[in-house]
Write a structure and sequence with these properties.
Largest sheet: none
Low-confidence stretches: none
Shape: globular
Number of strands: 0
Order of helices and strands: HHHHHH
Helix content: over 70%
Distance between the termini: 18 Å
Strand content: under 5%
CATH topology: Arp2/3 complex 21 kDa subunit ARPC3
Length: about 170
């Protein structure tokens, strides 16, 4: 039988996954105010970052995977899943590396910046494979800068939210 703590944690993860899916949907309704295709703030990815800092790698990966698969199924299709998953996995692994160095002074904002940059690199790699051309990498400078900017913004948001959500989570534990 599942213990009470595990059940509460599963509920918390289900809520966070739902929030990530909702953020993904809402963000798609409002394009970035720059005329550069493919650039998003990445609010849904901030949920995975928060989960990493609250629960650890396995739960963050679960939330990212469920969000990508469910959002793709509901809103955009298989090709979107391929790009989102390649970006999400690479992003999460890069954030995990920074998360492991948090005791050495690496911050959640730094993890988010890494995540934003590597998310874009993962999507470029998927595009290069799907399109069978490396010319997509000419878009790399634009996406690296956007990953830096959006990663900083979402990292600041995560830095604000993690302590507040941790207090709530500790109360229901």
């Amino acid at each position: 039988m599942m213990n009470h703590h595990k059940l509460k944690q599963m509920n918390y993860i289900a809520i966070m996954t739902s929030v990530a899916i909702l953020l993904h949907f809402v963000e798609g309704m409002f394009p970035m105010p720059v005329a550069i295709p493919g650039i998003k703030l990445g609010l849904a990815n901030v949920v995975s970052l928060i989960a990493l800092y609250l629960f650890g790698p396995a739960q963050a990966f679960t939330i990212m995977l469920l969000r990508v698969l469910m959002s793709s199924f509901l809103y955009s299709g298989f090709s979107s899943a391929l790009f989102s998953l390649s970006g999400g996995v690479l992003s999460l692994f890069s954030m995990l590396l920074i998360w492991r160095l948090r005791e050495k002074g690496f911050s959640i904002v730094g993890a988010s910046v890494c995540g934003g940059i590597f998310h874009n690199i993962g999507q470029l790699a998927a595009a290069a494979i799907v399109l069978r051309t490396s010319t997509v990498f000419s878009y790399r400078p634009v996406l690296l800068i956007s990953g830096l900017v959006t990663g900083t913004a979402t990292g600041i948001l995560a830095r604000i939210l993690v302590p507040k959500l941790d207090r709530i989570y500790q109360q229901i534990k």
